[in-house]
Structures are given as C-alpha cells and as structure tokens.
Amino acid sequence: MDPGAVAVLAGFAAFGGLLAVLAGSYGLRQALRVRRTGVRVEALVKRPPGSASDEPAQARPLLQFATEDDRVLEVACPVAPSRRRPLNDGDHVLVLYDPADPRTVVVHDLERRGLERAFITAGALVILLALALVAFAVATRCPGASLLHQALDPDPCHRVVVPCDLHSSWVDDAAIRGPSRGARNP
Prior knowledge:
The chain is an alpha+beta fold and 186 residues long. The protein has a domain at 3-114. It has four helices and seven strands. Strand 2 and strand 3 (72-76) form a beta hairpin. Mean pLDDT is 78; it is low at 160-171.
C-alpha cells in the first residue's frame, strides 16, 4: 500500500478516535457534574404514550418528577432498563437533575460511566493505531533512511548518482563530492 494512502487512512482513524475520546469525556463530565451539583428527587417511571400494557417495555421509559419550583417534567430516561433494574411502569426511582436545565437527569445507580470510559479507551486505542500507521508510512517511505532523517528531510530518498565510467557501478554523490568543507585532512 502506498505510504501516502496509509497516512490518509491514519488521519481518518485519528479523527475518529479523537471524536470517541471527546464524546466519552463529555458524557463522563456531564454525568459527574450532575451527580455533584444536581438536585435529588423521586421520579415515577411511565410508559411512553401509545404503548399498550401488554407490549414489552420500550427501550427508554419516561421519568416524571417535580422540580424545586413545583414544575412537573417528563423526560426520557437517559439509560435503558436492565435485568438488574428493569424500570417497570409505576416504579419509583431516585434521579438527580441539573437545576439550570432540569431535562438533564442522571438516574441514581444506573449511570453508565463504563460506557463513557469504554469510548475514551477505544478512542485512545484508535489514536495509537493511527500513530502506528503514520510510523509505518514514514518507515516504508524510504527503507534505507532513519526515522529522524525522514522526519527532517522532506525527500530522504532523493540521491544524485552518476556513473564513474562505463565499466564501474553507480556511485553515490557523496562519494564524488569528497569530504565536506569543515572536515580536516590528516
């Protein structure tokens, strides 16, 4: 594969990894902020409108609660029910809501910090993979050059060679130029 194509692929991978890290970090920060500054209230779990009682529970039920200023709100549950906590119609759960935006809620003991941490970890791994792809692209650009030389020289494989005579082999331009100006001859 062409090293330029590998570098482009690595760039897209790094961008995707960065998005995953940012999404996980944002979700974790929001959940921690609401846990730290949120108001605790009890919420009623309700089926979404249009759901029959004999249908299986929807993925995300509604949570109905009253705020400190006695407004009644219904918001979609931020997490899906689980076997450990099924969130059946009519159940009561403890939620924490953001006083500045009461639609932002965290269900006590159902935060999905593991999901946010998984996004951060997966994103970091994808970024590391992208860096490995870039290192591979640089290393295969010119196999004889060192990584430092390739990083400093935009075209490390460019060499001028001239034939010495018709019967000898090709010689590198450094051999023709002789010693550099600063070198002393013994």
